[in-house]
Design brief:
The protein is of the alpha+beta class and 156 residues long. It has five helices and four strands. Strand 2 and strand 3 form a beta hairpin.
């Protein structure tokens, strides 16, 4: 799907506030409601807009600890990688999971209440996953930047 300036403005507005009514969105992007809704539906159908969410405040939910965990696997076969990815996806604490380049390490980010919860997560959830060779943790001291809106191309 080729995106024009109006599409990009729609995406920008929805990335900032996914709860906008169609009437308010149309006003912000200078369209009438009917064509605006048609464009939003087209963006959804094309998979440009994947879904809408509410972002919760982790601290308000008692999730004060943000930890990055690097996990090395003993074996880097397709089956081993797929098995690990399937198992790690089962855990709600895991907010993100990336396969890193080079040595087939994974980097995950977990949101937890405290150090005791981290210890339970590592011992009870990670170590039973077959094929893990090494687990390394890094704690965040403070969040300097966090955003969910993707950078959009400039329009002319």
């Amino acid at each position: 799907m080729k995106l024009d300036g109006i599409d990009l403005r729609i995406i920008k507005e929805l990335q900032q506030d996914g709860s906008l009514s169609n009437v308010e969105l149309a006003r912000r992007v200078h369209l009438s409601p009917s064509p605006c809704l048609a464009r939003v539906k087209a963006l959804e159908t094309a998979g440009v807009i994947q879904h809408y969410v509410a972002l919760a405040n982790p601290k308000a939910l008692g999730l004060d600890l943000n930890v990055f965990i690097s996990i090395s696997l003993k074996e880097q076969s397709k089956q081993a990688l797929a098995a690990f990815e399937e198992r790690i996806a089962e855990h709600d604490e895991v907010m993100e999971c990336y396969l890193m380049t080079g040595d087939s390490d994974y980097l995950i980010r977990v949101a937890l209440a405290d150090i005791a919860a981290l210890e339970r997560f590592i011992i009870d959830q990670l170590t039973p996953i077959p094929g893990i060779e090494k687990i390394r943790t890094s704690f965040t001291l403070k969040q300097v930047r966090y955003k969910t809106a993707l950078p959009l191309p400039e329009t002319t």
